[in-house]
Amino acid sequence: MRVTSEAGAPCVVHHGIEGAVEIRDRHGHPLDHEELADGTVRIRLRKGDSALITAKGDSPDLTIRAVTANEPAPRWGLPT
Predict the structure, then answer these.
(1) Edge-to-edge, what's the strand order for the sheet holding 50-55?
(2) Can you give the pLDDT at residue 14?
(3) Strand locations in 1-80, DSSP E?
């Protein structure tokens, strides 16, 4: 889960991830955060900063790329 601060205030997120989490900045560096109750964390972010919340030890591939469709589907979006 990625969150971006629009106000530059502490961000409280209920993430719903089972177990321990890691929180990193856009460069992959750990961010200080406070663990609250029931899968909720408080992260101090400046305006425009973002945080990536993942399960501890998880390294998701965040590359944006085209994917192959699972099955035929109608086209959507702007006509070509």
Answers:
(1) 2-4, 50-55, 21-24
(2) 93
(3) 2-4, 11-14, 21-24, 33-35, 40-43, 50-55
Structure tokens at 59: 């390294």
pTM to 2 decimals? 0.73
Strand partners, 51: 3
Of 26, 29, 35, the closest CA to residue 5 belongs to 26
DSSP structural state of residue 37: S
Q: In one letter, which amino acid is 39?
A: G
pLDDT, tens digit, 9 for 90 and up, residues 11-70: 899 998 998 999 999 888 999 999 998 889 999 999 999 999 999 999 888 888 888 888
The whole-number pLDDT of residue 24 equals: 94
What number of other Cβ atoms are within 10 A of residue 25's Cβ?
A: 14
> Measured between alpha carbons, how far apart are the two ends of the chain, in Å?
33
Q: How many CA atoms lie within 13 A of 7 on its CB side?
A: 6
